[in-house]
Amino acid sequence: MERKYMEHAAPAVFIALVGMVSLFSVATGVMLTSIEMDYGVTTSAVGLIPALSSGGESLAYVLAGFWRKRRLGIRELAAYFICLFLVTLAIGLRPPFFALCMLYGLLGLLVGFLNFAGNTVVASSYTQDRSKYIAILYVSMGMGCALASLYPTSALDRGVYWGRLYRQYALYVALLAVAAITALLPRLHRFGDISCGSRVEGGGESALSFLVKKGRAKLAALCLVALMYQGHQIVLVSWIASYMTQWLHVDAVSAGVTISLFSMGLLISRLLSALLSKRFTTRQMVVAGCLLGGGLLASGLFAGRAAAMMVTFPLAGMVTGWILPMVISCGYNLFPENPVAVASTINTASALGGMSFSWLAGIIAHSVSFPAAISLTVLNLLAAALLMLLIPSGRTAEKQ
Questions:
Q1: What Å distances lie between residue 397 and 131, 161, 250, 289, CA to CA?
Q2: SS3 72
Q3: How far apart, in whole angstroms, are the C-alpha atoms of residue 97 and residue 8?
Q4: How far apart are CA 149 and CA 262, in angstroms?
Q5: pLDDT for residue 214 is more than 50
Q6: What is the DSSP letter of 144?
Q7: pLDDT tens digits, residue range 177-203?
Q8: Do residues 207 and 345 make contact, with C-beta atoms less than 8 angstroms apart?
Q9: Are 346 and 30 in contact (CB under 8 A)?
């Protein structure tokens, strides 16, 4: 029993942590309208918040490629949670807008480091059935996202100040730190630290250097698929609440419920992926998910009614949630000897997609219209389907 606990403690705790910290991505989108009104800035200016958050996440994956130690002990975990606590608290104290944007960038950096650690701890701990456990990691993330919008939307609807919510999140981080470190103490006491994957052959590589080497064209194409997919998801999660409240004049609670239903669809998708991947190839599932998801989102947006979105958005989530985990698993299949570099490379690309398209959506919403901005969430899925079709057959087309 003790041996099994030692083997599974670290991946289990990191799977839970990734899910619990994923709330920050959804909460940011829910609060954008409140922040915009509080600071009196334009829609394109407030669009810097999700863009910098995704940019910080991307930077985390790049920096992780140069991480020499790749071990986590008590000091590293404590330092991480202290930083997360201070950044969350500082956001809640309503700093000047420029400082607020920088703090969101730091928040994205910290979330990115945790996502990287979660991916690599799980991938290193389970060399057999790796795709299964990566899917469980993303199920945890989906659960966090599904629940994340419920509390802030109801609180904002009751008139609670958005900054107060972030001060409450700081307390949440403190409690999370105590729980995580307590759960890991037996493992840390026995082994001293936790492995986050081995160094890449040749002394380690950054995401960029790993990507550009000869014979990695398929991985580059997978990165583009991840970039377009994450651009779709971040645009939707970050901007759909503002689109529904400002353009469709829907109440904030309904907008928050729509996000939660979409996130629940993602969760169901990741639960179903293990079963479906036994019958269909990765290429078939990714392409079908992109096309069906794009069609469902387009039908809901075209209807222009909250009720229609509450039906089509969770269905879209159910057919798109498996895309990113399957793309990452494809990368692991291409380079099973280097899971750390694969995770860093694909996650860097996905975070860059979230950063660039969320920023672009804010500009389009300000200069053109909200419907034009939110249409990126559909166009990105169609582009991801095309890119997946262009990848040559091979390990990327295998059943997982």
A1: 14, 49, 42, 15
A2: strand
A3: 43
A4: 11
A5: no
A6: H
A7: 998 888 887 766 555 555 555 444 333
A8: yes
A9: no
